[in-house]
Design brief:
48% of the residues lie in helices and 5% in strands. The strands form 2 sheets. It has a 6-stranded parallel beta sheet with strand order 1-5-6-7-8-9. Strands 2-4-3 form a 3-stranded antiparallel beta sheet. Helix 6 runs parallel beside helix 7, helix 21 packs antiparallel against helix 22 and helix 22 packs antiparallel against helix 24. The longest helix has 31 residues. It is globular.
């Protein structure tokens, strides 16, 4: 991070241990906090007040180890000249606080993506900023961090109402909230600066983005609720939806131009290289600019190295430059030598995969990893050969951010979700052929192997989307032979992609699971941590017998092991029931499929079978064979 120029990193690890110490002073017990903290794979959403208790409880071992780790992280950050950003108080409190302080102004927020508004996980408690306890607890939290870590920073993060709607649109309330948040910081640290995500300005469109003038007052009320120069806003999604342009430079508030780029840690080759190369420069040189830096705030980072390499450089660039020349230099540095075929391939990728200009946030919904939950009987009139109107409307809404959640597709059984496709797959297959041909010279490069596997996976996954549609068309024509042919091809593609991914260490499920289990100090923790790791990348949140989680596959991954053990059985169950429906001349039993695969998922989440942690097979040989099999 230091070598890439990063000097203001978030340092959120171990904050639950600090909260335990703070709340203990308010007579809140460890048992009470079991219902407040999220599990190890769901900490971020519990911290933001989206959920509570899911994946928990956190053991004392976990709390102690994470606090020790945080101290190591902070020490290293200081050694390399970084300024850490520590968390602060946004009003999110344990339910027990309401019992201990019955007169406190504590309200319950609405549901955030549970199946049936299950209070075990949803509807967290919020302490009003007008209540004296708010500033008191906020100050105590900052002081406790200073006590543990020393006086190491003046910058604190607080994100209010992250994907939760405020209880009122009164600008006075918004202003009092901002004032209380900052006062809590500044009472503990006179030089405190509030670093705030700008995500709320567009994630909750009904509240923050109506066309009427009230939105101006709400935004200004929050941004101007603290002394000028004491707040920095992260323009979180400036690579696609820059807010600085529509907010008069955040009404004079300093901001950081950020690239979000990725949702859910999904593995998908995607990017907007032109926007990354020009956006920060345009923002910095614009009239009355209040931009003070560039940043990255992806939900997952282990993908698309080219995007992050370019974004890191933008802190050092002040003038426009030619991206094609930069890509030639990049490929030389990445693979260790100049290769004409690779340079030609990257030129294609620049104009296709890395040139997404449709304004749609990319969240991988390829059919392999987010299998559609719908009845394909054709009764709804959905046109699966093109883009049906409801799908087009969803895309248009998405482009305008009319959805109010970080997950960007709402599946319904009445319509078929369409995976995002913004480029010519034929052109990308040409780039893949060039990559394969360059293998004679570059096969010894680990970075070449990674990119080859990733590009092969991308091409095969997009092919699988069409094969799925072919299978559904066959079902609608009541052509059982064609249905069998296409469904078997879809299933075989899953198997082949799994074998491809197994040839590179970066695409293995086993690595994820073993790293989770290695944190455990006893067998109970080991089981819990593995369940957390398995659940986050599959079902994610709660489900019922017939209702999958609203966030299922949100964090889907193209990992060897996950395809064969999870995505393959799910698709097999579905196609088996489609065939059965044709054989028996009966309607497709969607509920039966849901029941079967949800039960399978929950069993898999609880299971403990082992998966490889080392690559197996020759990536170039496998990629070449699969190219011949599917694209020759």
């Amino acid at each position: 991070m230091a070598l890439q120029g990063i000097n203001l990193p978030l340092a959120f690890t171990g904050q639950e241990a600090i909260w335990q110490k703070v709340f203990l002073d308010y007579n809140i017990t460890s048992q009470d906090l079991n219902d407040f903290f999220g599990g190890p794979a769901f900490l971020a959403w519990a911290r933001m007040g989206n959920l509570h208790a899911w994946g928990g409880p956190l053991s004392q071992n976990w709390l102690n180890i994470q606090l020790a780790l945080q101290k190591q992280i902070l020490s290293r950050m200081q050694e390399v000249g970084m300024t850490p950003v520590l968390p602060s108080f946004s009003g999110n409190v344990p339910a027990a606080l309401k019992k201990i302080f019955p007169s406190a102004n504590i309200t319950r927020l609405g549901d955030w993506n549970t199946v049936n508004g299950d209070p075990r996980w949803c509807c967290t408690f919020l302490l009003a900023p007008s209540d004296p306890l708010f500033i008191e607890i906020g100050e105590a939290f900052i002081r406790k961090q200073i006590e543990e870590y020393g006086d190491i920073t003046n910058i604190y993060n607080c994100d209010t109402f992250n994907e939760n709607t405020p209880p009122t649109d009164d600008p006075t309330y918004i202003s009092s909230l901002g004032s209380a948040v900052y006062k809590a910081m500044s009472k503990a640290d006179n030089n405190a600066v509030w670093l705030m995500q700008g995500w709320l300005f567009y994630s909750d469109s009904k509240y923050w983005k109506p066309p009427q003038m009230e939105v101006q007052f709400c935004r200004k009320a929050l941004l101007h609720s603290v002394p000028r120069g004491k707040m920095i806003v992260l323009d979180l999604f400036a690579d696609v939806k820059p807010i600085w342009k529509s907010s008069s430079q955040f009404y004079g508030t300093p901001y950081i131009w950020c690239m979000l780029h990725n949702f859910g840690g999904n593995i998908e080759m995607y990017g907007v290289l032109d926007a990354v190369a020009s956006g920060p420069i345009d923002a910095r040189t614009s009239e009355n600019s209040t931009m003070v830096g560039v940043g990255m705030c992806m939900e997952g980072i282990e993908h698309n190295p080219v995007v992050y390499e370019l974004m890191s450089e933008m802190a050092f660039r002040g003038d426009n430059f030619q991206l094609q020349g930069w890509l030639k230099s990049y490929s030389h540095r990445r693979y260790g030598k100049v290769n004409d075929q690779i340079e030609a391939a990257w030129d294609i990728l620049y104009h296709t995969i890395y040139n997404c200009t449709d304004g749609i946030a990319d969240h991988n919904t390829d059919y392999i990893v987010e299998f559609p939950d719908w009845d394909p009987s054709g009764k709804t009139g959905t046109d699966i050969s093109g883009t049906d109107s409801s799908s087009q409307n969803r895309m248009q809404k998405l482009a305008g951010f009319q959805l109010n959640r970080r997950f960007l597709f709402f599946e319904k059984s009445s319509s078929l979700p369409k995976p995002h496709l913004w480029y010519s797959t034929e052109d990308v297959i040409k780039a893949l052929k060039l990559f394969i041909d360059a293998g004679k010279e570059l096969s010894g490069s680990l970075t070449y192997r990674y990119d080859l596997v990733d590009l092969s996976r991308q091409s095969l996954s997009k092919l699988a989307n069409q094969v799925y549609l072919d299978a559904i068309s066959a079902f609608r024509r009541e052509d059982s032979k064609a249905l069998s042919l296409h469904s078997q091809k879809f299933l075989q593609l899953i198997k082949d992609i799994d074998r491809l991914l197994a040839a590179d260490d970066n695409f293995l499920l086993g690595t994820w699971l073993e790293s989770a289990k290695n944190l455990a100090m006893n067998s109970d923790e080991k089981k819990q941590y593995e369940w957390n790791a398995r659940t986050q990348v599959t079902m994610w949140f709660d489900n019922t017998k017939y209702n999958q989680s609203q966030l299922h596959d949100y964090a889907n991954k193209f990992w060897s092991g996950l395809l064969e053990a999870y995505y393959l059985p799910r698709a097999s169950m579905y196609f088996k029931l489609l065939s059965k429906s044709l054989e028996e001349k009966m309607d497709f039993k969607l509920e039966e499929w849901r029941k079967e695969w949800i039960a399978y998922s929950n069993k898999w989440q609880e299971s403990t079978e082992l998966y490889p942690v080392k690559a197996q097979g020759d990536a170039l040989a496998i990629s070449t064979a699969l190219f011949e099999k599917y694209f020759s």
